[in-house]
Amino acid sequence: MSKDWKTRLIHSDAQIPQGFRSLATPVCRGSTVLFSDAASAPDEWNQYEFGYTYGLYGTPTVLELAAKVCELEKGFRTIITPGGQGAISLIHLALLKSGDHVLLPEIIYGPNRQFANAVLRRFGVEVGYYPPSAASEISSQFRPNTRAVWCESPGSITMEVQDVPAIAEQAHRHGAVVVLDNTWASGVYFDAFAHGVDVTMQALTKYIGGHSDLLLGSVTVRDKAIYEQLGKTHQDLGCAASPDDCSLALRGMKTLSVRLKAVEQAASALAQWLQQREEVELVLHPALPSCPGHELWKRDFTGSTGLFSFVFHNQFTREQVVRFVNALKLFKIGYSWGGVTSLVMAYELHSPKRPAYGPRIVRFYTGLESVDDLKADVAQALEAMK
Ligand SMILES: Cc1ncc(COP(=O)(O)O)c(C=O)c1O
To answer: Is 154 a residue whose pLDDT tops 90?
Structure first.
C-alpha cells in the first residue's frame, strides 16, 4: 500500500537497530495500548491478569516502580498514585462506605485528618480519633461498624512511635483493616506486614524520589482481596501517575540506601547535639529516650531517618522561635522532606488533642550537607533568637 507523507508521519516504515540494553528503565509514556485483534481487547484494570490494557493502570515504567516498592515493603502488590495525599484518599475511598467508622491517631498527618473530617464525614463515614500512645486499650474505641484503623509511626511533627502490633491485634479481633503511613521509615526501617499491617502507603515524594523534584505516592497491600478493592477504586478515580516522575523515582531508589544512611547519621548527630543545648527542652527523635514511644522504636524499627522535631523551653516566645527559623542559612524553610537539602518548619500546636508544645516546636529535616556546618548554622541561629 503506497503512503502519502502525511500518512508516513504516523505510520512510518523507518527502521532503527534493535536490542538496546540500557541500565536505566526506559520512560514508557502512553495512554492507548494496542491489541492484536478486536476480540481480545479487555476493558480491565488488573494488568497482571489481563496484560496491558490502558495507560491509566500503569505503563511498564509505572509498574516497575510499583513492583520495586512492593518488593522493598514485602507486600502482595503496590499501586502508584500521583502523590502521597492521593494514596491516602485512595485508601479511604476504597475501604470505606457510608455508615462505616474509621479510627485515626490524633497526631495523623494534617491533610489526612482534613480528608477524613471534610470528605469522609460528608459521605456519611463516622470518624474517630485515638491517642497515639494507645496499645491494646484501643479496643474500647471499636464499634460494630469500624472498618479501618490508621497508624502513622512516628507521628507527623510530634514523632510519637506507635505500638502497631498491639493496635493491629485489636483491629483484627474487631474485623477492621490496619493502614499505616510508612513514609518516615521509607518502607525500609519498619517491616509493616510482619507487624500486622494490611495496607501501607508512602509519600514517594520524600526519600524514594530523594531530590525534591517530584510528587508520587504508593499503596502496598498484604493480599489479593484488598488489592482488588484498591485497584478498582484506583480505576474509578482515574488517578494515574506520570511515567516521567516514576522514572525519576526509579533513579532515586537506586541511591536510597546511601542517602538514608547519611541522613540517619546527620539527624542522630544533630539531635544529640541539640539535646545538650540549654535552649532546648525536649528532642523528639525516635532513637532518643526523650521521644514518646522510643522503646517501641527500639523493638520494632531497624533504623531511623532524617526527620525529627525539638521543643524550646517555655521561656521562648513565638517571635523568638520565628527569629531562630529565619536566621538559619543552610536549613531552608519549606514543607516536605527526603531530599538533599536540610529543611526547617516551625509549628503551633494548640489543639487539646495534641501535646501542648504551643509555638515552641520546630521540625528539622537533615539533608546531605556536612553535619558540622549544620550544627554551626543552628548555633548561630540560636544566638540570633535571643
Ligand atoms: C507523613 C506524610 N504522609 C503523607 C504525605 C503526603 O505526601 P505528598 O506531599 O506526596 O502528597 C506527607 C507530606 O508531607 C507526609 O509528611
So the answer is: yes
